[in-house]
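User: quick one - fold this with S-adenosylmethionine bound?
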Amino acid sequence: MSVLYVISTPIGNMQDITLRAIETLKTVDFIICEDTRETSKLLHHFEIKKELISSNAQSESRKIGIILDRISTGQKAALVSDAGTPCISDPGIRLVNAAIQKQIKVVPIPGVNAAITALSISGLPTDSFVFEGFLPQKKGRQKKLTELSQETRTIVLYESVYRIEKLLDELNQYMPNRFVSVCRELTKMFEEVWQGYPSEIISKLNVKTIKGEFVVVISPVDWKDSHDRIDK
Ligand code: SAM
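Assistant: Sure. Structure tokens for the protein plus S-adenosylmethionine:
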């Protein structure tokens, strides 16, 4: 049967891979990945040897035809990203979409995702939330921040080390009274979480020397519990 497995991999701690992910990676004919060096490290750790096909944001549309032809002839394929869940702020959605159109079975092998991991320890409402991924770097950034300053759901953002200082300054400017949870290096050795108003986080976090990857979770505009928490 033609099948494409969409497999989540760890975001830092190798032990966060699922048993099903390991078993599936062992059984497929080939693996589609972002960066072959990153996926090779993962496969080496679990002693898996497989053919890797790199497909990133630039090459995805060019490679889709070849990949789907191979799956259509009966080969089993796995899609992974460098870390976490494929297609979530990562390449893969065009391949998945094209596979669905070709009536190829797409099977999820769920696991870690940085946004959900950060949300789960934020203490903020999770009954309704909005995932915005990375904010636009230039055009549209201010408009988006203005919109988010009125957001009534919890907001989850991704941010790189290069812009975390800028983002915290912007949150202080656009939404100074919102409770924010900043998670760095989740599941890794130097995992850290800062919580409070943007100004408090700016004073706690030494943005000049800090490294790593960040998820920022922001309280809804009308969330009042934040005041109780901060004053404790
Ligand atoms: N597909 C991934 C997922 O499922 O979470 C996200 C990939 S996106 C290109 C990378 C961004 O995810 C990073 O810039 C950071 O914002 C967030 N991220 C990934 N791993 C992380 C970690 N261990 N700790 C904190 N944030 C992380």
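One thing worth noting: The two ends are 58 Å apart (CA to CA).
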